Amino acid sequence: MLNENELSVRNNAGYVLSNFCEKILYSPEEEKYRKIYLHDPDVIERLLPASGAMECLFEIGFIEDGDCLCLPKTTSLTKLKTLQKLLSSVITLKSNSTHFDKGHTASGSTELSIKLSKENEFFTKIVEQFHSVMRYEDQDLQEKAKKVIPLVQLEIKTMERLRKFQKNVLLNKKTESYSTLKEDLVNSTDLFLMELLHWFKYDFFQWVDSPLCISCSKECSFESVRSTSDPKCSRIEVHRCNTCKATTEFPRYIDPEMLLTSRCGRCGEWANLFTLLCRSLNYDARLVYDVTDHLWTEIWSVTENRWIHVDPCENIIDQPLMYERGWNKKLSYIIAYSRDEVQDVTWRYTQNQIDVMTRRKMCSEEELLHLLQTLNRVRQSSIGYSVTRKQYVTKRRFRELIEMLHFPNIQNNYSTIDDTNNYRERTTGSYAWRMARGEISQHNIYKGYTWDISKYEKKSEWQEGVNYTEGGIFHKTEEDWKMVYIARAPGAEYGYVRWSFEVQSSDLCIKTFNLEAKTTVFHGANITWEIEGFFPSMKEKDATSLIIPISTCNKFITDKLKGAKKVNVTVKLSGGKNSLAWQHAQLFRESINNIKEPSMTIVIKLDNHGN
């Protein structure tokens, strides 16, 4: 296989392999020469790109041992000597242009140098993450992680969720909807994951844009970043207080053990720790890294026999198209890492394969595939990795590849609704931060729904009957106060929600309109309402409309819309104080336990058209 590579690739790989062999043969008792670290630049830049290079190491007796390959002292050196002789015939050093030299790429074209630099950086990141996920397999760390999880509490909530589901099954057995509520499609392990995710998001971990000042506890702003020699964090951010001007450091921890204590961070920290917690509970979990700067988790569902997308930052399960459709992300490479393998899972997260391919310029597809296959062979050839497990992972991977195949005009089972408006925008991070990252979609969150007043309709979620939203409107849960409400996104100056009602029967029209809604405001915030009625005419140009401001939504009633065929109800949330202004205008605030009283009541009485 080594001979099948291009001459320069073959020579570079052969030189490195020959160098490894020579050192071992010259000093067979030296332990350091029997170890080859996979993050070594020579391995990343010269061995991994060459087909057959890593296979040569396995063939002569190297095995995986943590973050390196090692050659046990009990292994015979006969095969190593044979390889050394073969390499002498493979390596052809015809000129300086083909001779292995660390300065070789610098002597080439600028374009080639840039490509190699990006490629090596990308490959280095993959190799580093490939090894770092093995931290999740530390049994002591798993036990430590498991202790922070309120298992009994989550198990009780899981049983409550399961009983609720079973009740729905019984209620729907005689209806067509029973086909979507089959009991065997739900298992307690998957339901427990939902409770774990909710607890992690709302009770355990916290999002941090800027830490509070260590001197006066006031708000800070990002100032700079500095490197650190601490292996437990990738870098240290420096934030300056807006009030007292003192600086506060914010270490970006990559060690999940540190995150068990700090319990805060951004998407990298969220996904890192949540994946560890899932592994501590024996979920088959993997860390997913999107090179456009986001991370999340995937969980293997035994029930559904597929990988399930889980985003702990957003408390979202199984919405893989959310990033492309809701966040407006321009995806390119999405790589998943686990104890078993590293895989390119980009195609699960996009329906725009052609556009994505135009952005995949860090390396060739063949080079990436070769790297991933090589790393997987390394992992699955490691000490203690069973043949049975390898066979299972191989079959599972085959199923995954089939799942990610793209057939035009055919939707996968997780994306049956091809509509951008069904995927919400990002909610974590300040509005300005998300806008700067390009993660605020240009589309509104919810599709333009219009209620038909002349017939009965039922919706189960608040957003399903909404006609329009603006300002990142979302459903907020305060677990500490046990309250829920609708609010605008953090950092948004205002937010709008609009409902639309129309009389589609030609024989009827609106007679009276009645509105009653729960609202709560703090610190000078405002919630204002208005209704707009539309009056048709035989000639379209003669159609009219009427806007009525509502000073109070406490039992508001009017007959000024008499004769209208359509009415829009719009509420605006604005005002408030400081960075929490978004939270000071609360629509439909009520107790989590309130399941009987409606948050908003709209009564539209109809009359015969022409009366």
Automatic annotation (TrEMBL):
Intracellular or extracellular location(s): Cytoplasm
Cofactor annotation: Zn(2+)
Record key words, sorted: Cytoplasm, Hydrolase, Metal-binding, Zinc
GO MF annotations, alphabetized: metal ion binding; peptide-N4-(N-acetyl-beta-glucosaminyl)asparagine amidase activity
Catalytic reactions on record: Hydrolysis of an N(4)-(acetyl-beta-D-glucosaminyl)asparagine residue in which the glucosamine residue may be further glycosylated, to yield a (substituted) N-acetyl-beta-D-glucosaminylamine and a peptide containing an aspartate residue
One Gene Ontology biological process: glycoprotein catabolic process
Position of the signal peptide: none
Domain Transglutaminase-like residues, every copy: 259-314
UniProt family annotation: Belongs to the transglutaminase-like superfamily. PNGase family.
Protein name stated in the entry: Peptide-N(4)-(N-acetyl-beta-glucosaminyl)asparagine amidase
